[in-house]
Amino acid sequence: MVKTIIIEEHGGAEKFKLVDREVGEPGPGQIRIRHHACGLNFIDVYQRSGLYPMQLPHAMGMEGAGVVEAVGEGVTHLKVGDRAAYASMPPGAYCEARVMPAAQVCPLPDAISFEQGAAMMLKGMTVEYLFHRTTPIAKGDFVLFHAAAGGVGLLACQWAKSEGIRLIGTAGTDEKCQLALEHGAEFCINYRNADWVSTVRELTGGKGVHVVMDAVGKDTFDGSLDCLRPLGMMISFGNASGPVPPFNIGALGPKGSLKITRPTLFTHIADHATCQAMAAHLFEKVVSGAVEITIEQRFPLAQVADAHRALEGRQTTGQTVITVG
Ligand code: NDP
């Protein structure tokens, strides 16, 4: 029996239940992993609230790290005793141990701790595809990145710096802006008390940025389009402030033949080889020191509701882990 967090209905953080569950043996293509930690992601909030509906009851959590305890038939890239980490569908990482598909589980280098592994897989591979698999971004290009002091944000600041990309961040407090700057953002604007669209224009000599990476959604979407230069690319990849309302695609023409995409990590990592290659690229960035994974908040499994309240309440910065055991 293992301790597992489930929800039986969508709603607020009070909906979490800590239950004891049988964990079982892995079938073909599966492994059993015993977690040392799991990650906290804003997608967990959408799944809990019902913005991204799930069939209920359902386990929760999309990212974790630990030791492989058992391996099912046909799994060749992992063996019993391996250190491993993953970002994976279906949800179910908020637990002591689980049986899960092996394809998206990656061997974790010794230089990366379990907590770092648990905190970085979903957000780190997201940053990998944003900078390398979504639109061409050249050295010296400007990228506007909202919520730059968040989990994905602090990784994006460091990644951009390591690639010579000029990242303009936004964040909700001056302290968060300072943190983004310390992690490699070239500029950071407190978007709660500044006209950030005009500031972005000024910082780019009136031209606008080449790319916007916007996962704040409803509150920033329109302004983000106004920050782009002609032929610029809008990457809308999340909804922390609420979903983007339906919009008129015809508006992209007069704004300068803008492009727009709405990507998800899980499309990118659906293919085993691509997932392992993205993870290898991420590990290389972390092991080389180009991207540092620091854990800013820790919550025990039984207090996952407090972790969600902090994340939704804009109280967290950088990476948060749920500690297990
Ligand atoms: P963060 O740690 O970035 O937390 C979200 C941040 O959004 C907050 O800290 C806050 O920063 C900002 N924010 C702005 N408005 C609001 C609001 N009304 N309520 C709450 N927060 C708000 O979360 P993650 O790093 O886990 O994820 C960042 C975003 O990236 C999310 O939208 C997530 O869904 C998306 N994502 C998308 C993926 C994809 O493949 N499509 C994969 C991974 C993440 P501040 O106070 O500075 O404004």
TrEMBL record:
UniProt entry tagged with the keyword Metal-binding: no
PANTHER family membership: QUINONE OXIDOREDUCTASE PIG3-RELATED, QUINONE OXIDOREDUCTASE-RELATED
Pfam families: ADH_N, ADH_zinc_N
Keywords associated with the record: NADP, Oxidoreductase
InterPro entries attached to this UniProt entry: ADH-like_C, ADH-like_N, ER, GroES-like_sf, NAD(P)-bd_dom_sf, QOR-like, Quin_OxRdtase/zeta-crystal_CS
GO molecular function: mRNA 3'-UTR AU-rich region binding; NADPH binding; quinone reductase (NADPH) activity; zinc ion binding
Cellular component terms per the entry's GO annotation: cytosol
Enoyl reductase (ER) domain boundaries: 11-322
Designated name of the protein: Quinone oxidoreductase
